Amino acid sequence: MKSVITTVVTSADAAGRLPSSSDLESVQGSLQRAAARLEAAEKLAGNIDAVAKEGYDACIQKYSYLNNDGEANSTDVFKEKCLRDIKHYLRLINYCLVVGGTGPLDEWGIAGAREVYRTLNLPTAPYVEALRFIRDRLCSPRDMSAQAGTEFRALLDYTINSLS
C-alpha cells in the first residue's frame, strides 16, 4: 500500500540510493501530521453513517432526477448504490488518513473507477456533490481540530478531483 514512507523508500531503492534529505523531510512532515490524521480518522469512523447520509441527502436535493417520489424503479437501485458508494469512498478516505497516503484511494477507489462509471453510463456528479457537501460542512472545532480538518479536506478534494 502506498504511503509517504513506502513511496520514499521505493523511490530511493529504485534509484539505488539512500533517501535524500528532502525525502526524509517529507517523511518527517507526514509523521508530524500523523496525530491530526488519526484524529480525523477516529472522528470519521465514529460518525461515518451520519456523514454519508448527510452527503447523500445533499446530492439527492441537487439532482432531483434521483428523487422519484416513491415509485420503485431503477432510480431506487441507483439511490441505494449511491449511498453505498459514498460510504465506500469515506472508508477509503479513512484508510488514507491512517496510512498517511493516498494508496487506498488510488488502489481501491480511483483506478478504473472512471472507466467503470463511463462504461455503465453512471453519473459521477452525485458522488462529487455529496463529497463537496461533506467537505464544505466540516467545521472546526465542532467536528474536529483545524489540523485534522485540513487533513480530511485534502483527501476529500483528492477524491472529488479524481471523480470530476
Outline of the structure:
Helices cover 76% and strands 0% of the residues. It is mostly helical and 164 residues long.
Structure overview:
The protein has 164 residues and is mainly alpha-helical. It has 2 domains: 1-32; 34-163, Globin-like (Orthogonal Bundle). It contains 8 helices and no strands. The protein has helices spanning 4-14, 21-32, 34-62, 74-99, 103-110, 113-119, 125-137, 146-163. Helix 7 (125-137) runs antiparallel to helix 8. The chain is globular, with a radius of gyration of 18 Å. The chain starts with a helix and ends with a helix.
Helix/sheet category:
mainly alpha
Outline type:
globular
Percent strand: under 5%
Can you summarize the main beta sheet? none
Q: What is the domain total for the residues? A: 2
User: Can you tell me the CATH superfamily of the largest domain?
Assistant: Phycocyanins
Characteristics:
single chain, 164 residues, 2 domains, 8 helices, globular
